[in-house]
Write a structure and sequence with these properties.
341 residues, mainly beta, AttH-like fold, 2 domains, ten-stranded antiparallel beta sheet, eight-stranded antiparallel β-barrel, 1 helix, 62% strand
């Protein structure tokens, strides 16, 4: 199966006919000096009349500043709604985001398991973010649009999708606190029909030690069939495509939220493997709900965790970095379906 990725894919795509057509950009970034960072996402669902706008900032002392909104949109011309603006400056090389608006500030991020109560009972602060992200060009890109459909009808999550490790610089202000950010992260762009209920569960693990070493590990499970395992490692200017990953997780509490992660990425092409362990520093549980055709509410939990990673193999063994561990699970009978992996 071939994969296409052009400079034009860095910009907006033609709005598809699917009612759940989504075009989204995501980026995370963490400053290792301050252990401050966060992630930002805008997902246009123009055929449904709204965008999904999310800002999530991990602050000192275990606090999280957060906002999710569904601002109205009528087209797919830009990623600019709800106070969050994305600007593509140079394809594969430079992207900026700017945000201004209120965020709820959570001393206990786990309260977001009940979002109505969390938004009602916690204080708000005016926030402003200006970040510029730089990538290392076309050679550092992973993914694109396959030349033939790769997902079953009703299980689509993205027609096209690519990722890139980035460096991020700029400022984050929440209330009276301001941080100069000089860190690393990963960006993601996808387009096509999407339901958050399409995967049975997934684990998406991203991190950077510095500009010369980073990774993305992906384990996606389907209701029927084996799903997929893979990712990539960027090491000293070389992109190693990985075709297997094993993930092991330690959870805590009745909600089975993850607190420690271990994974091994393998590349048959490079005849290499990389073992990495992660410690969750701060986690916020989010959710998405959708009615099924028979009227039943389907519940999806997405646990978003700032994570400190340690590399245990290869020339970067012993080095630490920062990034995200994102765990998506469908919730059935009150429990996440992927707790055994």
């Amino acid at each position: 199966m071939g994969v296409r990725l052009e400079e034009s894919d860095e910009y907006m795509h033609e709005l598809g006919p699917e009612p759940n057509f989504n075009e989204s950009m995501y980026v995370n970034c963490f400053d290792p000096r301050h252990e401050v960072g966060g992630w930002f996402r805008m997902g246009n669902r123009a055929n449904e009349g709204y965008a999904e706008m999310t800002v999530c900032l991990y602050l000192p002392g275990g606090r999280v500043a957060f906002m999710f909104r569904r601002p109205e949109i009528s087209d797919n011309d830009a990623l600019d709604a709800g106070g969050l603006t994305w600007t593509m400056v140079r394809p594969f090389e430079e992207l900026t985001i700017d945000f201004a608006g209120k965020l709820v500030v959570l001393d206990e991020p786990g309260q977001m398991a009940d979002p109505k109560r969390a938004f009602a009972e916690n204080p708000y602060a005016e926030a402003e973010v200006h970040l510029t992200f730089g990538g290392q060009g076309r050679r550092s890109m992973f993914g694109g649009e396959p030349d033939r459909p790769h997902e079953n009808p009703g299980e689509e999550f993205a027609k096209g999708h690519y990722e890139q490790l980035v460096e991020g610089r700029g400022t984050i202000r929440v209330g009276d606190e301001t941080w100069e950010i000089d860190g690393f992260g990963l960006r993601d762009h996808s387009w096509g029909p999407r339901y958050w209920q399409a995967p049975w569960y997934y684990r998406w693990l991203t991190g950077n030690v510095d500009r010369d070493f980073g990774f993305m590990a992906s384990r996606v499970a389907r209701r029927d069939g084996p799903g997929s395992r893979g990712g990539f490692v960027w090491e000293d200017g070389v992109m190693h495509l990985c075709d297997d990953v094993e993930v092991s997780t330690v959870t805590h509490g009745d909600d089975h939220l993850h607190e420690r992660v271990e994974f091994t990425l393998r590349s048959s092409r490079s005849d290499r493997e990389w073992r990495v362990t992660g410690e969750v520093l701060d986690l916020i549980p989010l959710r998405n709900r959708r009615r099924s055709p028979d009227g039943e509410w389907l519940m999806t939990r997405i646990s978003e965790a700032m994570t400190r990673w340690e590399v245990h193999s290869g020339p970067y063994s012993g080095r630490t970095g920062y990034g995200m561990s994102e765990y998506l699970d469908q919730i059935v009978d009150g429990a996440p379906v992927g707790i055994d992996e």
